[in-house]
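Design a sequence for this backbone.
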């Protein structure tokens, strides 16, 4: 979290992490599409032949609160391919929350596990405690054949504390739920660490409800 007292601006950084082609970029594209155009920034995407995103996607969301602060939420994705580890580590610097986007296909289990291990290592290398980092897990690509069963995923989810969401990001299913769950756990953590409500009058409810309204208006605008 960054707070600029001169500009009265609070910036929260959220990172979408996961193996190559698991749907990280697709999640951000869907979020951008669902948002009210007035409350979203430009979605930047860099594509290469070997990976969808070479560096990162950046989607800044910005809105003013009753307290007079402007809250900016910056969403990033990391490149999934192994060779881009240095970039993943760089993008994770200063992260306030992470959404891990797993591929539901059974043949991608090892790739998911390797990427999650990589996430924990890169967090530690950046001086961040993986056990304290707000985290949400999304199992994407639920529309494909040969996927891990829902019961199996829910059994695994019950062993942890992280919210787990089933999604098909190409259809927009589970995308908003993942983002809002990530915002919820991240803001709760920031409130515990920095007393945002007491110090700045920035209530958890105010921020979350404001964003929900922005998505609602964006959904209406994108309707038939």
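Sequence:
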């Amino acid at each position: 979290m960054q707070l600029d007292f001169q500009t009265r601006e609070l910036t929260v950084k959220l990172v979408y992490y996961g193996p190559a082609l698991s749907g990280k970029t697709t999640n951000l594209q869907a979020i951008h599409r669902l948002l009210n155009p007035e409350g979203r920034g430009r979605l930047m995407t860099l594509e290469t032949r070997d990976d969808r995103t070479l560096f990162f996607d950046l989607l800044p969301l910005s809105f003013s609160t009753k307290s007079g602060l402007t809250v900016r939420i910056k969403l990033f994705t990391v490149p999934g391919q192994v060779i881009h580890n240095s970039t993943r580590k760089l993008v994770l610097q200063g992260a306030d929350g992470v959404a891990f986007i797993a591929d539901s296909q059974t043949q991608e289990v090892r790739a998911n596990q390797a990427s999650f291990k990589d996430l924990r290592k890169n967090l530690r290398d950046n001086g961040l405690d993986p056990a304290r980092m707000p985290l949400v897990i999304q199992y994407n690509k639920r529309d494909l054949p040969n996927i891990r069963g829902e019961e199996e995923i829910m059994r695994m989810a019950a062993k942890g504390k992280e919210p787990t969401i089933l999604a098909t990001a190409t259809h927009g299913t589970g995308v908003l739920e993942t983002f809002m769950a990530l915002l919820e756990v991240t803001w709760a953590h920031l409130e515990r660490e920095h007393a945002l409500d007491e110090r700045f009058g920035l209530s958890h409810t105010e921020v979350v409800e404001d964003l929900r309204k922005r998505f609602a208006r964006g959904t209406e605008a994108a309707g038939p």
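Confidence is low (pLDDT under 50) at residues 220-224.
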